[in-house]
Amino acid sequence: MANMVKNSHRRPKHYKTLLVNFFGLPREVLLDLPRLVMLGNSRMVVENHRGLLEYTEETVRIKTAHNGEIRVTGKGLNLLYMVKEELGLAGRFLRIDLPEGEE
Question: How far is CA 4 from the centre of its chain?
Fold first, then answer.
């Protein structure tokens, strides 16, 4: 019985992965993965976020699906905009830490 319960939790992600691979769909959309678009080291767009965890001029922590976070460290960081699933950052990016374990 325990195996049935464990497998039932894995199936939705497994099926989503199969759909992504079969139809050639964007992984970030179907699997709730964050997508970062960098413009040099001074502008960034983060898609598929779940909100801010911390926001200062030196550190921005962005929540992602599956209890992950993206940490941006830099100087003069500024939130340009934030809408439901996309946000824009500006400043001088020195380091970007990505969530572990996400595909």
Answer: 30
Output the pTM of the full model: 0.71
In whole angstroms, how far apart are CA 70 and each of 5, 11, 20? 31, 26, 24
Residue pLDDT, tens place only, 32-46: 778 899 999 999 999
Q: Locate tokens 């699933």: which residue?
A: 85
CATH of 32-103, one of 2.60.40.2000, 3.40.50.10260, 2.40.110.10, 1.10.8.50: 2.60.40.2000
DSSP state of 51: -
Instruction: Report which of 39, 47, 60, 55 is spatially closest to residue 86, judged by C-alpha positions.
Output: 47
Residue 66 structure tokens: 């599956």
Q: Are 50 and 69 in contact (CB under 8 A)?
A: no
